[in-house]
């Protein structure tokens, strides 16, 4: 073989060495355990998929409308008082639990509050409370009791809380088992300066109230992923949170920034996901929903983005989606450098009641970006904007059926609230300061 042939072979080997870990989610040894997990995950995807996504969008819109009517009533009552007054959270999720002064004793009430495609996700509601007391992550094969890694690999449902403020620097990716809630209310908890969180081939996970930032790729190696299994992992990407074949996942009130790869990625048939009340800043590629145009399993991906603030220092992918159905409702986009919402492989994007504030630069005005398809192809994709507020010359290039959005707005009396309400709905995005004995 000549020198050119050798170079070609080396390039092919490098290509496959790079792509195989991604296709297998950084599982170095795809043994019977992981094969079984993958089969179960595919069944979970089929069960979680909603063939009528408009029912979900209508339900979200109804809850938003009801929450704002309640808020208006509360504010009238407040004006009648000289001082004090009732708790007044703005989003329907927060109204479900935040006014309870005994939230610390009633933590698992949060599990009744998910909306959107993750509605019904309860995490570890029916499990015991597990208190993380130790921020260390020294042993990847035999995690120390009291550490976050020890908590998330347990078989049974758990509601995981934290004894105090802490910074958890993960040596390698934290691989979660299903039926878990990570609840950082009442403690200032950062997962930072190490690897990120992986939710792979499992279902029923809630993550609430974490700061996740400065995540870097892990080196891989032998890592325990459950109490009865460990195996070799290849190098992780540096995502803040990675969903791989995961279903029924709710991410709420997170503050995320400066991760090496994405802040949140959802790929390989992940579905029934809601990302809500989060604050995202200082990052390039924010969210990736669907990793490959050839991964047709992502047709059943369904994700709700609601009441999030996409803030300072963001560049693109808020989200970048393939296949699937994405409901983007009442989010505040106050900064993007390239574009806000992008995609390929004909995803459906329904944008309702969002505020898009463009930068002054003329090249940063368009909200949307389609890849790998000419206009005559992408013009058939259903990307619809309804009740969105465009500021500083921002514009959303719509495509598909002009009547498509009417299918998703629900009862004419209740719809996604106009975008001028967005600053109110997102004012408490990101992590909350919750104090024992007070409404959160």
Automatic annotation (TrEMBL):
This enzyme's EC code(s): 4.2.2.2
Pfam families: Pec_lyase_N, Pectate_lyase_4
Start and end residues of each Pectate lyase domain: 165-362
Molecular functions per Gene Ontology: metal ion binding; pectate lyase activity
GO BP: pectin catabolic process
Catalytic activity: Eliminative cleavage of (1->4)-alpha-D-galacturonan to give oligosaccharides with 4-deoxy-alpha-D-galact-4-enuronosyl groups at their non-reducing ends
Signal peptide range in chain numbering: 1-25
Cofactor(s) this protein requires: Ca(2+)
Keyword match Cell membrane: no
The entry's keywords: Calcium, Glycoprotein, Lyase, Metal-binding, Signal
Cofactor: binding details: Binds 1 Ca(2+) ion. Required for its activity.
Pathway the protein contributes to: Glycan metabolism; pectin degradation; 2-dehydro-3-deoxy-D-gluconate from pectin: step 2/5
Family, per entry: Belongs to the polysaccharide lyase 1 family.
Protein name per its UniProtKB record: Pectate lyase
Organism of origin: Gossypium hirsutum
